[in-house]
Design a protein that fits this description.
The complex is a heterodimer of chains A (about 230) and B (about 80). Chain A is an all-alpha fold and about 230 residues long. Chain A has 9 helices and no strands. Chain B has 5 helices and no strands. Classes of the chains: A mainly alpha (about 230), B mainly alpha (about 80). Bound molecules: zinc ion (ZN).
């Protein structure tokens, strides 16, 4: 696993002061760090492990290990990235115990075909068609249906809003591998959500799709992509 | 002009506002003309917004409580 370095200055780490105070023995400072980061750590462990009991155990271990090893934190990354990396490792350890070691290696087991199947338009603001609790259930189900490695990249990148570099560092993946997983995860979750949010196909949408397909085929055949057939 | 496959391959660039000015312009151009790619780009963007807004997988209260309990035990043991 590459220990990737990227441009980062310690001054950018908003957790720096709390980390310092913790190292000086201030346990309340550590409690503040825990409060601030428990959401992200939990999302990481539940994404990898799937089961609540396991995710809870991994989260507890993460915060204990982070405290015990805080003096080894090098500050070449943000505290949150370092912490997420520990959460990933703790989760993997539990997986290994469950003999399910392949969870985060993917590529071979991943669906190779990225081609979207559901291509109908969605309702405007489709989330408004559902009560908040129902919407949350739909979204969580869509994410749960992804393989673990895709769940975790999606939650880190698109819910926790880590950068590509931070996501890669937290997971011990290369940047290209991270990018390709993020893309697949996004497309897969889109496909799952489309089942709830898309409009039923109309004659017009079918026609448009057929036209679009013909145009693409013609364009490819003629090597004049998009050419002469005009817009939609 | 880009093919639909190229649009798909570069979808993240587009959504994350990365990539060269030129690439982004090419993507815009394709999307403006291709109904299918327009839908895919638009609905992926919507998916990410919906997912982020609904804050999935929040820590259950009991799970959170047990975490602080465990930490308290741990610190007590250090005394
Ligand atoms: Zn297209």
């Amino acid at each position: 696993m590459p220990n990737r370095k990227y441009s980062f200055s310690p001054a950018q780490d908003e957790d720096g002061p709390l980390v310092e105070r913790t190292l000086e023995g201030d346990r309340q400072a550590y409690e503040q760090l825990v409060r601030k980061h428990e959401k992200r750590v939990f999302r990481t462990t539940i994404a990898i492990l799937g089961e609540l009991a396991d995710a809870e155990e991994a989260m507890q271990e993460t915060f204990l290990k982070a405290y015990q090893n805080l003096h080894t934190f090098r500050r070449d990354a943000r505290f949150t990235t370092w912490l997420t990396r520990i959460a990933v490792n703790e989760s993997l350890q539990i997986l290994r115990r469950r003999r399910d070691t392949a969870a985060l290696d993917d590529p071979e087991t991943a669906p190779q075909n990225l081609r979207p199947h559901r291509v109908e338009e969605w309702y405007a603001n489709p989330e408004r068609h559902y009560a908040a609790a129902e919407l949350k259930r739909i979204v969580e189900e869509a994410i749960r249906a992804l393989p673990p490695t895709y769940r975790v990249v999606l939650l880190l990148r698109d819910v926790e809003e880590l950068s590509t570099e931070e996501t890669a560092a937290a997971l011990g993946l290369s940047i290209p591998a991270t990018k390709s997983r993020v893309l697949r995860a996004r497309l897969m979750v889109r496909e799952a959500l489309a089942a709830y949010f898309e409009k039923p196909p109309t004659l017009r949408s079918r026609l448009r799709r057929a036209t679009s397909m013909v145009r693409n085929m013609m364009a490819m055949a003629l090597e004049r992509p998009g050419g002469w057939f005009g817009g939609r | 002009m880009l093919t639909c496959q190229e649009v798909l391959d570069n979808l993240s660039c587009y959504l994350d506002g990365e990539g060269s000015e030129e690439l982004r312009r090419e993507l815009e151009r394709h999307i403006a003309r291709c109904a299918q790619c327009f839908v895919i780009v638009d609905t992926t963007k919507q998916s990410l917004r919906i997912i982020a807004d609904c804050e999935p997988f929040e820590v259950p209260l009991a799970t959170s409580a047990r975490l602080y309990e465990r930490l308290a035990h741990f610190f007590a043991g250090l005394l």
